[in-house]
């Protein structure tokens, strides 16, 4: 039993004692407000305290013609303390109704915080359902680094991409990666449109009123920034990897031919990833390719990454690698981004090494020498800051997080040797599968697993920023 389960049991036991000891029934439990944020160093208001979500059920109607979203979110969560009120992160859209355990609840919103006050306080350990009905035209969110995220209206459709805090623009939730949950997303769109989300397509139903309902199911835990929805006139192709993972890819018309070379290798890449990193962590795969220029970036949305136009082979590989590193093993906080990006970048190095490109050693040396013939990013500002501590929230996707992050992994490989390093990558993916991890969790695990004292690697490469060129 892990410590998380143990602490949950302790919470349950103390709730039972509280009820038994006072002779009270659950209805007269005295709760207190849950925290309005999880004090993430970079996004302090992201997430909320006092509960953990188990499941999100999102029913969403969207009309590309007017851009209006009508939503109903049913959030099943477990209270981790007695709660008189609790918060959801939700920005912009109009909240029409909130109910907790079927009873109307009072609510009010300040900025991105929706505070819900249930009719009856919730007991520690109690599993409770919150229903939020809402509507409006979602407003995209501007990142500290200037990029756009959230629900984004496109020509003839829309896409939702949530890293790091954009998901609060289209559904209420506990929007921090430390609280992962299962999802069922139903997207209802006018006939003629496709609507794509994460996981498996359970059903595609004609609603009888000129619309189609697409029901998507994600049984494995998902961090809310990795939930997506894409509406458009996509061309859908389905397939299967050699080991049987079903693939569902949706490609914008006009992008098919250019997407084919890279997407055509997705099944092979997934098998390669399983050999390198251990079993593919999810029960579905695929891709969403938007019309070229729809977004400034790609995102590793769970099971089905989003690409802003036809992707290159490296980009498909990068987003696929995130399924192990970032999506299954998720960061404990936004400071730990190099655990996502350093690993996904190193996966690109490994793929090249295994397929006739430069070796990771050559790539590492090219960064030290600034040799852009081997990697165009070799002379970038990869040594601007320490990957384990980006200076601010605008830096969590900065070059050092990706490239110096990959160099940290290569330094471990140089110390440990190829066999032990490969075992470390597989071991890490297995150890934290479907969970979360911090940088300190990784450094401790790497030293335990390899039996090496890696302090010099951490000090110089991970927590330092100088380039030992
Ligand atoms: N995670 C994305 C990738 O590696 C990049 C990205 C998009 C990102 N949006 C972000 C990184 C916001 C940090 C924050 O392909
Ligand atoms: Zn990435």
From TrEMBL:
Keyword Zinc among UniProt keywords: yes
GO biological process: proteolysis
InterPro entries reported for this sequence: Aminopeptidase_N-like_N (IPR045357), Aminopeptidase_N-like_N_sf (IPR042097), Peptidase_M1 (IPR001930), Peptidase_M1_aminopeptidases (IPR050344), Peptidase_M1_dom (IPR014782), Peptidase_M4/M1_CTD_sf (IPR027268)
Range of residues in the leader sequence: 1-26
Residue ranges of every copy of the Aminopeptidase N-like N-terminal domain listed in the record: 54-226
Pfam families: Peptidase_M1, Peptidase_M1_N
Domain of life: Bacteria
Keywords per UniProt: Hydrolase, Metal-binding, Metalloprotease, Protease, Signal, Zinc
Residue span, Peptidase M1 membrane alanine aminopeptidase domain: 312-461
Family: Belongs to the peptidase M1 family.
PANTHER family, per the entry: AMINOPEPTIDASE N (PTHR11533:SF297), PROTEASE M1 ZINC METALLOPROTEASE (PTHR11533)
Protein name (Swiss-Prot/TrEMBL): Aminopeptidase N
Species of provenance: Streptomyces globosus
């Amino acid at each position: 039993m892990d410590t998380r389960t143990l602490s949950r049991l302790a919470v349950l036991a103390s709730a039972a004692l509280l009820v038994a000891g006072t002779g009270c029934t659950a209805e007269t439990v005295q709760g207190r407000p849950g925290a309005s944020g999880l004090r993430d160093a970079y996004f302090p208001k992201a997430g909320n305290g006092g509960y953990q979500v188990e499941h999100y059920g999102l029913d969403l109607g969207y009309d590309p013609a007017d851009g209006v979203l009508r939503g109903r979110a049913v959030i099943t969560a477990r209270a981790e303390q007695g709660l008189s009120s609790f918060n959801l992160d939700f920005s912009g859209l109009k909240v029409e109704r909130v109910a907790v355990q079927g009873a109307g609840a009072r609510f009010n919103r300040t900025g991105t915080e929706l505070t819900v006050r249930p009719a009856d306080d919730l007991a520690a350990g109690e599993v409770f359902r919150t229903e939020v009905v809402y509507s409006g035209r979602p407003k995209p969110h501007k990142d500290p680094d200037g990029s756009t995220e959230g629900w984004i209206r496109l020509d003839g459709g829309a896409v939702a991409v949530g890293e790091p805090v954009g998901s609060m623009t289209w559904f209420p939730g506990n929007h921090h990666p430390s609280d992962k949950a299962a999802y069922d997303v139903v997207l209802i769109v006018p006939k003629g449109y496709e609507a794509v989300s994460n996981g498996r397509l359970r059903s595609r139903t004609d609603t009888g009123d000129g619309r189609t309902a697409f029901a998507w199911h994600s049984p494995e835990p998902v961090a809310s920034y990795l939930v997506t929805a894409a509406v458009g006139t996509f061309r859908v192709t389905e397939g299967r990897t050699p080991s049987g993972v079903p693939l569902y890819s949706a490609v914008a018309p006009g992008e098919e031919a250019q997407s084919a070379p890279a997407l055509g290798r997705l099944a092979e890449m997934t098998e390669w990833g399983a050999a390198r990193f251990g079993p593919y962590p999810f029960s579905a795969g695929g891709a969403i390719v938007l019309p070229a220029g729809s977004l400034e970036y790609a995102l590793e949305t769970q099971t089905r990454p989003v690409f802003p136009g036809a992707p290159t082979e490296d980009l498909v590989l990068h987003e696929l690698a995130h399924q192990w590193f970032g999506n299954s093993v998720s960061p404990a906080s936004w400071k730990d981004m190099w655990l996502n990006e350093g690993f996904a970048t190193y996966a690109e190095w490994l793929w090249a090494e295994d397929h006739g490109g430069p070796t990771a050693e050559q790539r590492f040396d090219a960064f030290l020498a600034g040799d852009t013939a081997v990697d165009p990013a070799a002379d970038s500002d990869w040594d601007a800051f320490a990957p384990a501590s980006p200076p601010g929230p605008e830096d969590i996707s900065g070059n050092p997080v990706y490239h110096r992050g990959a160099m940290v992994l290569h330094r471990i490989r140089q110390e440990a040797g190829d066999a032990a390093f490969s075992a470390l990558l597989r071991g890490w993916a297995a150890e934290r599968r479907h969970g979360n991890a911090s940088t300190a969790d990784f450094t401790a695990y790497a030293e335990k697993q390899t039996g090496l004292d890696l302090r010099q690697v951490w000090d110089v490469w991970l927590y330092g920023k100088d380039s030992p060129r």
